[in-house]
Amino acid sequence: MTAQTSAVTPDPGLEPSPEFPRSPTAGGAARLALVVGALGIVYGDIGTSPIYALQTIFNPADPHPVPTSTDNVFGIISLIFWSLLIIVTIFYVGFAMRTDNDGEGGIMALITLIRRHSEGRGRKAGLVLAALGIFGAALFLGDSMITPAISVLSAVEGVKTINPDLETFIIPVTAVIIVALFAFQRKGTAAIGRCFGPIMIVWFTTLAVLGLGGIARNSEILRALSPVYAIDFLFGHFDIAFFALAAVILTFTGAEALYADMGHFGRKPISRAWLFMVFPALLLNYMGQGALILEDTGNIAGSFFLLAPEWGRIPLLLLAATATVIASQAVISGAFSVAAQASELGYLPRLRIAHTSEHHYGQIYVPWINWLLMISVLTLVFAFRTSESLAFAYGMAVIATIVIVTVLFLYIARVRWGTPKWVLVSGGGLLLAINVTFLAASTTKIIHGAWLPLLIGLTAFTVMITWQKGREVVSAERERREGPLREFVDKLRRGEPKCAHVPGTGVFLGRGKDTAPLALRAALELNHARYAHIVILSVETQPVPRVPESERIVVDDLGHDNDAVIHVTARFGYAEAPDVPRALQLVGQEQSEGRRLRLRNATYFLSTIQLRAGTEPTMANWRKHLFIATSHITSDAAEHFQLPRDRTIIVGSHIEV
Fold first, then answer.
1. Fewer CB in a 10 Å sphere around the end CB: N or C, the chain?
2. Which of 3-12, 377-386, 412-421 has the lowest mean pLDDT?
3. DSSP 3-state of 415
4. Region 153-175: what's the mean pLDDT?
5. Is the separation of the CB atoms in 126 and 441 below 8 Å?
6. What residues does the K+ potassium transporter C-terminal domain cover (predicted)?
7. Is residue 537 in some structural domain?
8. d(CA 433, CA 444)
């Protein structure tokens, strides 16, 4: 028997496997459905910013308020327009979303690309940037907690413009909406997109119509499209404008979510939705609100709802509440993607991930993350109680993540595309300077609540790097105990130790083909029996979303030309649900090469590790306990690998960290 050597190259061009094909691209109806779905999932966050952004910027209770004057209104609207154009349209839609890992986007995809392209050269820089990226991913998880809280709260608070006596119902109603939203997540982004997409079409149409109405009342606001007003505001009133930037960030929250959600729908549907509906609608609405404020500064509080005629405010309130639920969906879906990719890349424990679509592999549901987010969001709602209080905390995580994504993107542009340095220094430097200025402005809000997303991000970052380090320690100790695989197999074939032979096939899951699985050693030593056919199986997660079936397995006969003991490597992409029995069928089908494996009734053996804090200085003691605590959320291995419960045996052992 000769070993198969079909290699998997981590190439973005890999085709998806049949059970999770890519999103359909054949017909116009399919493309339109993806655009509608993207509107329902991706653009809720950035699409609901008009509800609270301008009233936050001009909020007199802000620690650094922006005085309401004609020049300041023109300057703010101009800043909003150019921020949306440069950061979202040019950077994210125009450039960042072209930097994908076989269709998967977001900061974790950038980390994967950096790890791949820094191998052998620039390794130290790659490690530093990967760590920076992990911090960005952690910040995004923090944003995923704050966005639903502020979005739903701001919409429900609209009842005060109708009847101030209803204020006591704001918190309870917000909590009920949030619980319902997270309970609905198990349906999957495909089902949610079908429900939310048409609603968001109505929402963005309403934004545009309301904005046009406001502009018609004072068309002078159209002059704010000129960059002159933004520049004059920034440099002519820098003492005011600098602090205002921290609130302007609220207008493009959700930019990272649309990048992280790219794997759900693809780049083109998301880009088309932004260019032809979302961006124009947002711009018109902000300008309409600006015109309303110019008309009467008393319109600042509730400027969004005051755009509507009095008879239309109750329907608008209901529509806004629905839209903010959808806004939460954007970051929730993005959090699922980030957590799933972090798990597969070794920065989080193995999580249970449900693929919710048979037609698009990127649509997933991660139960543990879902319920963690729900509890966190409810805690924020009851702790802060108003959207104004949360607004001080909002934005820091968003802009910090955008700065990190910009840095990672510029590195990828250099090492992957070979972009000339002068282009990176000029164009990239300007973009980075803009983003860093926004970040610097956000630091002024740290003592007023911006510390919260930083604390959440730092906590998540600590968990991630601790898990990665602890995983390395456990793997090293496990390899030492397991010992060399080929040496073990050679002894086994010489009849050492003495064992009775039983018919059938035993499949032993291990960490690789260099060491013997602990379960195999324990089974022989305790039972003094071995199966006629032994398959030592290791599962590898490739740094690509999907691995084609033709490259799914690699078989190694371990130096012996028979099928009594073989090693099989099963390869899966990080977006796949690893189905081990199905992958092993590919081995059993190769009858022409002399294999006679019978896997239909094979018995599967798993090794489970009980962790203990030891005395070795591998990590700080608190990190050891954090690592052990984090290990408890690891999903069941038999379920994760889709092993048959009635034919799976689990063998335990202890390892100190």
1. N
2. 3-12
3. helix
4. 81
5. no
6. 503-656
7. yes
8. 17
What's the CATH code of the domain at 62?
A: 1.20.1740.10
- List C-alpha distances in Å: 84 to 95, 402, 622, 640, 652: 14, 13, 43, 41, 55
CB 364 within 8 A of CB 337: yes
Q: Are residues 458 and 554 in the same domain?
A: no
Question: What residues contact 134, with CB distance under 8 A and at least 6 apart?
Answer: 111, 342, 347, 461, 464, 465
Per-residue tokens: 594: 């002399």
Residues pairing with 414 in the sheet: none
Smallest Cα–Cα separation from 549: which of 585, 513, 594, 597?
A: 585
Sequence length of the chain is 657
Residue 310 CB burial class (10 angstroms; 0-12, 13-18, ≥19):
exposed
Q: Does 249 share its domain with 277? A: yes
| Listed range (69-83, 461-475, 596-610, 626-640) with the worst mean pLDDT | 596-610
569/583 Cα distance (integer angstroms): 10
CB 599 within 8 A of CB 505: yes
Distance CA 438, CA 371 (A): 32
Query: How confident is the model over 507-546, as pLDDT tens digits?
Result: 998 877 778 888 888 878 777 788 888 888 888 877 666 7
**DSSP conformation letters of 217-244:** H-GGGGGGGSHHHHHHHHHHSHHHHHHH
Bridge partners of 365? 354
Parent domain of 632: 483-656
| 183 and 225 inside one domain | yes
Token code pair at residue 505? 């096939």
Distance separating the N- and C-terminal Cα atoms of the chain: 40
For tokens 């609405």, the residue is 285
- Is residue 226 assigned to a domain? yes
Output the six-digit token pair for 246.
């921290």
What is the band of 191 on the pLDDT scale with cuts at 50, 70, 90? low
Give the number of other CB atoms < 10 A from CB of residue 42.
32
Let me know: does 42 contact 273? Beta carbons within 8 Å.
yes
Share of the chain above pLDDT 90, in %: 19
User: What's the whole-number average pLDDT of the chain?
Assistant: 81
Report the number of distinct structural domains present in the chain.
2
Residue 2 included in any domain: no
pLDDT in tens, 257-303: 788 778 767 788 889 899 999 999 999 999 999 999 988 877 777 78
> Cβ of 19: how many Cβ atoms within 10 Å?
14
Question: Could you give the percent of the chain with pLDDT greater than 70?
Answer: 88
pLDDT score of 29: 67
- Which pLDDT band, with edges at 50, 70 and 90, does 489 fall under? confident
